[in-house]
Amino acid sequence: MCGIVGYIGKRDAYPVLIKGLKRLEYRGYDSAGVALISNSGELHVYKAKGKVSDLEQFVADKDVSGNIGIAHTRWATHGEPNSTNAHPHISSSGNLSIIHNGIIENYSTIKRQLQDKGVEFKSETDTEVLVQLIEYVQSSQQVDLLTAVRLALREVIGAYAFALLDKNNPDQIIAARQSSPLVIGVGKDEFFLGSDASPIIEYTDRVVYLDNQDIAVITRGKEEVEFCNFNNERLEHEVQTVELNLGQIEKGGFPHFMLKEIFEQPRCLQDSMRGRVNIDVNHVVLSAVIDYRRQLINARRFIIVACGTSWHAGLIGKQLIECLCQIPVEVEYASEFRYSNPVIDSRDVVIAISQSGETADTLAAIELAKSRGAFIYGMCNAVGSSIARATHTGSYLHVGPEIGVASTKAFTGQVTVLTMLALAIGKARGTINNADYEKVVSELSKIPEKQTKLLECNDHVRDIARIFTYARNFIYLGRGYNYPVALEGALKLKEISYIHAEGYPAAEMKHGPIALIDDEMPVVVVATQNVLYDKVMSNIQELKARHARVIAIVTEGDTRVKDLADEYVEVPQTIECLEPLLSTIPLQLLAYHIAVCKRKDVDQPRNLAKSVTVE
Ligand code: F6R
Questions:
Q1: Which residues pair with 89 in a beta bridge?
Q2: Is the pLDDT of residue 334 over 90?
Q3: Structural domain 257-597, CATH architecture
């Protein structure tokens, strides 16, 4: 969480920084700030509570000259969102300014020690401790800034990606990383910094991803960035080419990123399957399953670790892998797994699912599993992300950048990759017969086309949303493969419309939640025609007997559920294990349109951030 940007070169830094902050705003939007060293050598720091646009307004009549600067958009952890706690933070002398993403775990100990030595603090943040500590080391030990950074970081426990400006050296930015992402863009006579590549790609596609414990010294006029570690050993990093284009990170005519990303799903799934699903011979190839065949097909057990929406995809993955590969699967919240004492060893394969590839809990779960000898398979969207780099192997989603805070296309991308993985392993193990294998592969390849058709329901779902905007609570029900879909539908509604919603397996209703049902309770039921269809029909009858308002997701041509439901949306027919790739879409649209009707900030819902890099 929190987005950081930096620039040093010949351009005016301010426009580059503001544009960069807007691209990173999905990471947090409680407050924003910028520090610039002007052409006359002044350090100007401007901060505002709220979004980047609030900062822009605040800065409108200020001096924003200078071609070196750093900027930050915040998701508050320590201290409430206000302009004092906003970054950049300044050292006591006023010479150093810092922006930081992460958490300094031992900040209160260090703060007390510095206060005992007379250092005064202005904010409640952990970040201010970092800049004060660096300055204290610099002045008390009479060392240069880089040495002070190295020595200070030895005292610091926690996660950080930071960038540091020194008013007395307007030709240099020092940056460092531990567990929070940081990318440097290498242009001609200029350098860019970002929490990801999105603020950089407009200017250069040449980037360097920092590793943990890297310190980068970025100096004007040099061709390369210099890297060292805490022990002052020089490090070499390869400059990589980033494959991201501007179109992918802009709204493309849609009013919100979320709607754009919902509509992108057919193309995203095609991209995800490209080169992996061969429809001529109905075959799936995943390079990881070829390269690590022994570990994957002989796994005693799979353990899926993930958070939020990715965890919901994991629940679908469990059903797919158990069904097609006959290997037991456990699905764990990464945040719980990391503090458990799991019985796990080298015969286990951990699948870590993460859109951002930066989720702190998932990263910690991976480290724990690794330390116990497990083989780690990553499923990330963000290329080069921390999780992608921490795993032994993996498969990228290839659905393009997801910017709306509510995850949509990444979810269906995750389910697609999990399906391909289950097919590839099942085939290699001989646990799926050829006819079934070919049927699933063939049907998977048709999903994008079916999604395109399904998206025509958008206006109809918008009309349904208008009817239910009043609701204060919602229940979502599904069974089998559609139970995680119900959980996901409820999460989408909660996070962007702030309506309380619960997802349940439909048959669990009678064990308690049915007491909630009355004529004001909308219940969304995924009631597609699969083996559990008749059971779900009975569940709907139980609901209607108690006057619930039922919104049903039904298979095209269905008549029985339609007759019972108050509202319905039809989805194309497919085989059961692929239903989530279709049944999820009307639920994404329903959440979206309800949030729009309620005039909520769809792409940047309150209290949330896209990338959860704190635990
Ligand atoms: C919900 C949502 C979150 C994320 C969760 C994990 O729409 O986006 O629940 O799914 O924070 O994030 P990743 O997948 O980046 O690890």
A1: 98
A2: yes
A3: 3-Layer(aba) Sandwich (3.40)
